[in-house]
Amino acid sequence: MAPDLRLNRALHELLTRFKACPVDVAELRALLQPLPREEFPIGASIYREGEPSECLHLLLDGTVRVSAGSQKTVLTTISAPTVLGHLGVLTGLPRSASIDTVSPAVLIRIGQAQVRELSAGSGAGNQAFRRLMLATMGGLMSDTNQQLQELVTEYGESIPRGAARLQGEEPPRPPKGGGRSGVPASPGHAADRLSSGFDPDLLDELENIRLVQTEDDRRHKYKR
Amino acid sequence: MTSLHSLRSLRSLQACGDRDLQAFIRHATTTDFRTETVIIAQGQPAVGAFLIVSGRCRAEVQRGDRRMVLGSLGPGDLFGELGLYACGQKRTATVVAEEDVSALLILPDALNQEALRPVIDELERRAMASVADRIRRSAAKARRFSDEDEDDDPSASWVASVMTSLRRLVGG
Predict the structure, then answer these.
(1) SS3 (DSSP) at A39
(2) Do residue A87 and residue B139 have CB atoms under 8 angstroms apart?
(3) In which residue ranges of chain B is pLDDT below 70?
(4) Residue A212's closest CA among B170, B143, B11?
(5) CATH (domain of B71)
(6) What pLDDT sits at residue A210?
(7) Could you give the CA distance from residue A222 to residue B104 in angstroms, rounded to a whole number?
């Protein structure tokens, strides 16, 4: 089978973007090349939020839009090459967002069982697949950590709950039944909303995500 | 030097044969840390990962002059692994030896040593599962949060920013 240059270019670009360690691209390409291609016209739905995550896709050509929620809030647009839907497949969670095409798109579909096979095998192509996934997840985490770090820096002075946690004090939970904070939202005063009782669980999560790289947090507990 | 016996006892390497473990011992650098030694420091460039052979460590984060303990790591746990696969990152937490610790330092060059393949393959499989598990739990919290926030005031732009960050992480 002649090498698919588009797939080759996509893999090289992805591995370069995520500064992945060296992998055998030719072997990885040989594993992925026979997998089914899917072509979508403009405006087609690739994933719908809430659906089971049955596959991931490698976007070879085109641009897609990621949206979520009942308002279909657009979160981002992504152009090829990129990996789509891998976290849903690896975690077994339903799709957390919808993805639609904003230009004609060409993708390689990798079903759940194939993902398992590709991840488990011992060949050079399997190793390359694992490393592509790890590098992609690491890159995503790194980007997200950076964004969250910026948010925490920007709003850090207004996060008494987070500050209290860091100092080892448990902040009081907001009262139930009066909205999430018990205090009406103040339009235009985001920091006020935060200090008036933002969900402490999200603050846990902000910290966890910033730190997710170093721990096996099944065992983790906050020091109180 | 780390003994074969101590590696055999690690759950994360139980699928590996003695020959593979011996090759791994020869290549990886055994590093010993006394109690309260900082093994990796938040903000430093991420070079290599550590596999704990014996002893316990704690992961913590510093913000300004405040410190938060995240939890504890023990024998068989790998930390700093994403630094091997997505290079150029900085350590996002500090790991400190809670007691005398012996660990194997795995540097990026180990990833392409043929003799180490069985052990590295096993560690990579486990790393995938472990990273996916962390994200799964993060995603669950993010989803709960964002579901509750659907009808919130759009002027709270920081909420939107947080949601975007989290959803990008868990996206698709």
Answers:
(1) strand
(2) yes
(3) 61-68, 70, 86-88, 92, 132-172
(4) B170
(5) 2.60.120.10
(6) 42
(7) 27
Residues of chain A with CATH 2.60.120.10: 5-138
User: What dihedral angle (degrees, nearest 10) is formed by the CA atoms of A134, A138, A141, A145?
Assistant: 160
Tracing tokens 């698709």 back to the chain, one arrives at B172
Question: Domain range for residue B40?
Answer: 4-170
Q: Mark A71-84 as b/e (b = at least 16 C-beta within 10 Å).
A: eebebeebebbbbb
Q: Does domain A5-138 have CATH number 2.60.40.1890?
A: no
What pLDDT is attached to residue B86?
63
Tokens 């660990």 label which residue?
B103
Q: Of all residues in chain A, what percent carry a pLDDT higher than 70?
A: 60
Domain count, chain B: 1
Could you report the predicted ipTM of this complex, rounded to two decimals?
A: 0.74
Type of residue numbered B156: A
pLDDT digits (tens, 9 = 90+) for A136-165: 877 776 666 666 556 556 655 444 333 333
pLDDT classification of A189: cutoffs 50, 70, 90: very low
Q: What is the pLDDT of residue B172?
A: 39
Q: Which amino acid is at A164?
A: A
Chain A residues 28-47 with a CB less than 8 Å from chain B = 47
Task: Name the nearest CA neighbour of A59 among A67, A51, A68, A47.
Answer: A47
Read off the DSSP letter of residue A96: S
Query: Which A residues 172-191 touch B at CB under 8 Å?
Result: 180, 185, 187-188, 190-191
Between the alpha carbon of residue B99 and those of residues A76, B11, B41, B61, B94, the distances in Å are 45, 21, 17, 19, 15
Q: Are A101 and A40 in contact (CB under 8 A)?
A: yes
Chain B residues within an 8 Å CB radius of A27: none
In the three-class reduction of DSSP (H, G, I as helix; E, B as strand; rest coil), residue B109 is classed as helix
C-alpha to C-alpha distance for A186 and A149, rounded to whole angstroms: 24
Q: Which residue type, as a one-letter code, is found at position B13?
A: L
Q: Say which of A122, A130, A137 has its CB closest to residue B135.
A: A137
Tokens representing residue A187 in the block:
């339009």
State whether A220 and B79 contact (CB < 8 Å).
no
Contact A47, A84 (CB under 8 A): yes
Helix, coil or strand: residue A132: helix
d(CA A132, CA A11): 9
